[in-house]
Amino acid sequence: MPKGFHATNSNEIAAEAGIPVGSFYAYFDDKKHLFIEVLAGYLDRLNRAADRVAGKIYSNREEFLRELIECMLEAHRISPEFYRESTIMRLSDPDVRKKMADQQEAVLEMMERGFKSQSESVENPKAAAFMVLGTLERVVHGIVFSETDIPEKSLIEEGIAMIVKYLT
């Protein structure tokens, strides 16, 4: 069971990797440097998934939202423990907060462009993107992190229906 960033030290990381601690320090200044590198790789994977979604043409909003939720679920399921730890670190570390905020801003800009390009545009695309992303995150967190007996498909479909009603 992972102990989390604050409860783990560089010696433990090196031992788990099967390398001498000196080798760890040859590549990383400290455990935070390693964390930031791992986070950068994780966020890069998220950005590539978001680019896949942004690069497609969708026949309707439901299809776009469903694809976006699937993309977000895929990202959260890479490592729910790492996602939790990065969220904790976001609250306490300015470097992590900046990296995660930059990634969120990129997703918001992609969604805002999508809203602006639709013929039945929303009144404030930037605010709508913020609200929709927050709702999508809640749906995804409900699926990945909550202990609920509500089926995943039901949460997805209800989330999509709610967002579509909001946008129209």
CATH topology: Tetracycline Repressor, domain 2
H/I helix tally: 8
Low-confidence stretches: none
Q: What is the CATH architecture term?
A: Orthogonal Bundle
Name of the level-1 CATH class: Mainly Alpha
Order of helices and strands: HHHHHHHH
Alpha carbon gyration radius: 19 Å
CATH homologous superfamily descriptor: Tetracycline Repressor, domain 2
Break the fold down into its secondary structure elements and pairings.
Layout: H1 10-17, H2 21-27, H3 31-54, H4 61-78, H5 80-92, H6 94-117, H7 125-144, H8 152-167
Helix pairs in contact: 3-4, 3-6, 4-7, 4-8, 5-6, 6-7, 7-8
Please provide a written account of the structure.
This protein is an all-alpha fold and about 170 residues long. The chain has helices at about 10-15, 20-25, 30-55, 60-80, 80-90, 95-115, 125-145, 150-165. α4 packs across α7, α4 (about 60-80) crosses α8 (about 150-165) and α7 (about 125-145) runs antiparallel to α8 (about 150-165). The longest helix has 24 residues, at about 30-55. The termini are far apart.
Salient structural properties:
168 residues; mainly alpha; Tetracycline Repressor, domain 2; 8 helices; elongated
What does this entry show, briefly?
The protein has 168 residues and is an all-alpha fold. It has a single domain, classed as Tetracycline Repressor, domain 2.
